Hints:
alpha/beta; Non-ribosomal Peptide Synthetase Peptidyl Carrier Protein, Chain A; 2 domains; eight-stranded parallel β-barrel; 15 helices; 13% strand
Amino acid sequence: MITIGHLEVGEFPILLAPMEDVSDPPFRYVCKLFGADIMYTEFISSEGLIRDAVKSVKKLDFSEFERPIGIQIFGHDIDSMIRATEYAEKAQPDIIDINYGCPVKKVASKGAGSGIMNDIPKMVAMTAAVVKATRLPVTVKTRLGYDEDRKDIVEIAERLQDVGIKAITIHGRLRTTRSSVPADWTLIGQVKQNQRMIIPVFGNGDVVDGPSAKYFRDHFGVDGLMIARGSYGNPWIFREVKEYLASGTTPGLPDINERLRVSRIHLEKSVEWKGERQALMEMRKHWSDYFKGYPNFKPFRIRIMETDTYDELSAILDEIGQYYNGFPATELTELIH
Length: 337
């Protein structure tokens, strides 16, 4: 049984990655339905949180159904991170997670996210301060290093463990690596093989289906896997990965009726949490992923983008169901791959 502090998280947990503008409570809900073992909030600015910025505070929301869940924070100022940790703890999550992985320029250029990997002593000092500021287990999500000349993750993982983190998730890319470049798991494996490491080591990057999950588990020995882009429009991936790891088989792709059923749950939870107008706007980025691979979907997508009422959108979804009813899953597999 893998544990994070005193928190038991399964024999080989599959985690949903914290993703800005994606892993909000409605999306986390549908991923939990299909077996996500641990989930994290979207990353939250420490500065925004301590200033009671509405957007930052809203990201603290989660339901009991989502547990175990971590609140992820980021920032460049140690004092602000301490105060944000204390603020986040009041929401009673199971974990406090520190984002040392975000490569976005406006974050990294300020020395936050993956930008702090340019200053390992500060990274260690910040982590130690956060650990001391909370009774909850602290975890870290980070990358292989700052750039090609500084692939320091083996040293970093040791030093963060030494100051008290209870698990580390490593994304197999550098701060400077584009997402189109395949993830490099070699150093993730080296961290796990390091005899000084006793905390769980989770791997992240290019886990997109059952076979890729099995490959990374078997070849690099990690304690669990984190899924990010592979979950877009595909909350079923958690069920698929678990079944494949257990039996070498997959449950097959969900048909149109199942895609409609789950995407409607996602939509309804979004309306409940955000209100109709905002939910319809923010759900627009998900529809193409939910129906990826279906031919002639563009006219439906255009209409979805133009509608601003729940009833009209619901009617369009009914039409989608009728149009693609009976579409063979085997053909969808070919279109996707």
